[in-house]
Amino acid sequence: MSPQHSLPEHDPTDPVESAVITRLVRNWGQRATVKKPEPDLDELFDRDKRDYPNELLPFADHDRFLGLTDDQQDQLRAWAWIAFNKNVMDIEQYVVNPGFDLVAHDGLDTGLGDTFALAVHQAMVDEQYHTLMHLNASAVTRRQRGWALPNDALPDVMTLRRQREVAAADPDSRRKAISLFAFMTVAEVSISSYLDLISENDVIQPINRATVRLHNRDEYCHSSIADEIAGIVYDTLRPDERRHFLDGLVHAMNAFSSNDYSTWRTIVELMELEGGHAMIDDAEHDTSHSKLVQDFSGIHKLCRNLGVAEEMSFQWT
Ligand SMILES: [Fe+2]
Ligand SMILES: [Fe+2]
Questions:
Q1: What is the mean pLDDT of residues 132-158?
Q2: What would the pLDDT profile of 260-310 be if each residue is shown by its tens digit?
Q3: Is residue 198 pLDDT above 90, yes or no?
Q4: Interval between CA 148 and ligand 2 midpoint (Å)
Q5: How far is the CA of 245 from the centre of ligand 2 (A)?
């Protein structure tokens, strides 16, 4: 546990600072992807590579999928990549940045000092740039493959739908803010594992891997920032608010790890794929595919440091 996590009493006149955050704020200009030259995506595009790994398709071993033409399989993988990018963009814009904005204005009255405001403003710039990177990655896929694959045909990502449900269920604005904060914390500490699904797979389109690799470089720092802030904020919450925050973490982890079958249903409908719905239904009922992201080790560590991991209703492994 860092010294900040164990502050005995919170003094609102004495702003909290952190050595970790101070170091990350200082080196942002050298390390941030937004400060680096952009790769030429069209040049890097390899039409013979897959846009998305079969291993991540929850129906990859289904007879219906195996019986599709190469072109249909390619279209499904291209759609999967478009959906992956849309998920990342939805999370950045509607889950992460609202949570960071709350911290930027010390919305939970934690007494965070200016360095925290700088750190989250930098991180929000990063997130805006990541959104642009994934927007560009989808655009180049559409251009190179010649398929429309429109983002707005897809449903909002499940993490965002759940975040909205959880926030809407609570009339109290402070509790709503704590829910937003919990969802941001899970997204920021766990998004690396989601990005790694693509970056570590070498049969995949090099620009897709480059996009997530560049993105992930920033996220390693964001996860330290979010972890540090979560510990400090948690210390200043009342016991009932702490419980609410921990429940929010569990809601967010459950949403974040799920394979989103509503997206798949929309995709097979858009492709007018015969037998598509039955294929998705079968995949949904096959529990070996139920989890997409498995790695919540960062949140587990945070909760262990807070001394609460054992009392949370979450299966950690
Ligand atoms: Fe990001
Ligand atoms: Fe981030």
A1: 96
A2: 899 999 999 999 999 999 999 999 998 777 677 778 999 999 999 999 999
A3: no
A4: 29
A5: 19
The rounded distance, in Å, linking the Cα atoms of 309 and 311 is: 6
Contact 181, 237 (CB under 8 A): no
If one counts every other C-beta atom within 10 angstroms of the C-beta of residue 293, the result is 18
- How far is residue 289's CA from residue 291's CA, in Å, rounded to a whole number? 6
Using the mean position of ligand 2's atoms as its centre, give its distance from the Cα of residue 102 in Å.
15
Report angle CA 120, 159, 64 to the nearest 5 degrees: 135
Q: All domains of the chain, ordered by start, with CATH?
A: 51-311 (1.10.620.20)
Q: Which ligand is nearest to the CA of 89?
A: 1
Which one of the ligands is nearest to 185 CA?
Answer: 2
Do 4 and 18 form a contact (C-beta atoms < 8 A)?
yes
CA of 12 to the centre of ligand 2 (A): 28
265: left (phi over 0), alpha (psi -120 to 50) or beta: alpha
- The 3 state secondary structure assigned to the chain is CCHHHHCCCCCCCCCECCHHHHHHHHHHHHHCHHHCCCCCHHHHCCCCCECCCHHHCCCCCCHHHHCCCHHHHHHHHHHHHHHHHHHHHHHHHHHHHHHHHHHHCCCCCCCECHHHHHHHHHHHHHHHHHHHHHHHHHHHHHHHHCCCCCHHHCCCCHHHHHHHHHHHCCCCHHHHHHHHHHHHHHHHHHHHHHHHHHHCCCCECHHHHHHHHHHHHHHHHHHHHHHHHHHHHHHHCCHHHHHHHHHHHHHHHHHHHECCHHHHHHHHHHCCCCCHHHHHHHHHHCHHHCECCCCCHHHHHHHHHCCCHHHCCCCCC
Residue 183's identity, in one-letter code, is F
Average pLDDT of the chain, as a whole number: 92
CA angle 43, 217, 80 (to 5 degrees): 60
**Ligand that comes closest to the CA of residue 189:** 2
